[in-house]
Design brief:
two-stranded antiparallel sheet; alpha+beta; flavoprotein; single chain
């Protein structure tokens, strides 16, 4: 798969089929993940793959409870999902959240069917600088294998319970960074169309300096560069 196809079409997939993911496919996904850059090559990460159906059913109940907590925060005007990006349209943000809640409802309602959960742990991660490149590499590798997934952190609302269920040696400093729900998607891959264009979120040399070109449409699939990269207005 062309790297740009993977970069442009890897998105969060919450509607997943129950078909199992072969172990060799899982191995390729994680082998790509551990090649990710990390500070000092310390590799302070650990991945727990969960495919035990009883465990997944237990995590399903916990996930629904954790998700309810996040939406209670959202309804009260708190939490990370409330604020729009500066300059972003509030109505568009509300519509995005509505769609996300709909697909999230599907994930929550069908959680027991997810074939693979991947819990990601790290030690002293400096805000995620070491672990998130590995997570993104895992998602890109999954895309190359035809496997979709979604990263969620809501189970950190019950971190102690997760640690207990998975036997995490917390005394060594391990903390959960995220959980990935992985499976073959029911939907189609596609370029995310609801992104603000490059020139609206980028500048050059100073915060308020124009980036220099405008990119009104995604640059993949390849098109005539002259038609997609324009001189900056003004």
């Amino acid at each position: 798969m062309d790297i740009y196809e993977a970069l442009y079409t890897t998105r969060m997939m919450r509607r997943l089929r129950p078909d199992p993911i072969p172990l060799d496919t899982q191995a390729r996904i994680l082998d790509a993940a551990v090649r990710a850059p990390n500070g000092g090559n310390t590799q302070r990460w650990h991945f727990v793959a969960v495919d035990d159906r009883e465990l997944i059913r237990a995590f399903a109940q916990l996930f629904r409870q954790a998700r309810a907590i996040e939406y209670e925060k959202f309804s009260a005007g708190a939490g990370p999902m409330v604020a729009t990006a500066p300059g972003a349209d509030a109505g568009a943000h509300a519509e995005t959240m509505r769609r996300m809640q709909g697909s999230g409802n599907y994930l929550a309602d069908h959680f027991e069917e997810i074939p693979l959960l991947l819990f990601v742990f790290a030690i002293d991660d400096l805000g995620g600088a070491n672990i998130y490149p590995a997570i993104w590499s895992a998602l890109l590798a999954a895309r190359a294998e035809g496997v979709g997934g979604v990263m969620t952190m809501v189970l950190r609302n019950f971190a102690d319970r997760v640690n207990e269920m998975l036997g995490v040696p917390v005394d060594e400093g391990w903390k959960m960074s995220a959980m990935l729900a992985l499976g073959y998607p029911r939907g189609k891959w596609g370029v995310a169309a609801n992104r603000r264009p490059v020139h609206e979120v980028s500048s050059r040399n100073r915060w308020d300096g124009p980036f220099g070109v405008e990119v009104p449409q995604p640059l993949w699939p390849p098109r005539d560069a002259a038609a997609t990269v324009l001189p900056a207005a003004g």
